[in-house]
Amino acid sequence: MHLSQATNSITPINRRDKRYPVRLNDLYDPPPVLYIYGDIRLLRRPMIAVVGAREASTRGMKTASLFATALSKAGLVVLSGLARGIDGAAHRATLGLKEGLTLAVCGTGVDVVYPKEHAKLASVISQRGLLVSEFPPGIGPKPFHFPRRNRLIAALALGVVVIEAADKSGSLITARIASELGREVFALPGPIDDPIYKGCNRLIQEGAKLVSSPSEVLEDLLYTQKPYLKAIE
After folding, report:
1. pTM score, two decimals?
2. Which of 104, 118, 139, 212 could be cross-linked to 109 through a Cys-Cys bond (beta carbons 3.0 to 4.6 Å apart)?
3. Residue 1 forms part of a structural domain
4. pLDDT tens figures, 146-156
5. What percentage of the chain reaches a pLDDT higher than 70?
């Protein structure tokens, strides 16, 4: 599914451009070019990633909406990957706020919507937020694109909140890269016999911060990221 007329508004930004997000330079392989569609000013705002299972439970979707709403109200750009499940719930909850700002990193060109059922969501994000990709316009989804997308999410964010993740979830890639880059990683715990929480529980075992409310995320960010937050303001 292609965004109509999107190619007329897509802006390429290379690493020499002052608008290129400096945080991406923390990666060992920062993209030489970013393609963006929407409000470029969001690249200079503090971001928090909310990610998780594609096949999320109803409870997980509500939890993602709760966290995204609270984090957005606190002034953060809610960042995710436009996927089904937790990603979509986080984007939609943020857009449900009058002043909510959300950024989607795509595993396709910014003019190609995947999954197709998120065409309307992507269109609204392009109007009220920002779509970002390292893939040129017209490029469709490939399996190897999504781990690459996840590393951009990890690098752009001050922290990553993982809500429901199975043992082999792509969200774990995002969280582990975030940890390697010195970003904060937060995970919501769940029953040990529920497969959809196995990834979150494993992250907590590996050192992610166990959280049960958005206020805990905000308190931690204010403590660990205060200089960066003040610089952005």
Report:
1. 0.93
2. 139
3. no
4. 999 999 999 99
5. 93
Q: Is residue 140 part of a domain?
A: yes
Indicate the SS3 state at residue 30. coil
Print the domain residue range for 181.
Answer: 6-15+22-232
Which residues are paired to 51 by β-bridges?
162
E-assigned strand segments in 95-223? 102-105, 130-133, 159-163, 184-187, 209-210
> What are 86's two structure tokens?
């937790």
Contact 38, 125 (CB under 8 A): yes
Q: What share of the chain is helix, strand, coil (3-state, %, to 5)?
A: 45, 20, 40
For residue 44, what is the domain's CATH number? 3.40.50.450
Q: Report the distance separating Cα 55 and Cα 184, nearest Å.
A: 25
Q: How many domains does one find in the chain?
A: 1
Q: Which two tokens stand for residue 218?
A: 């905000």
List, for residues 174-195, the tens digit of each pLDDT value: 999 999 999 999 999 999 999 9
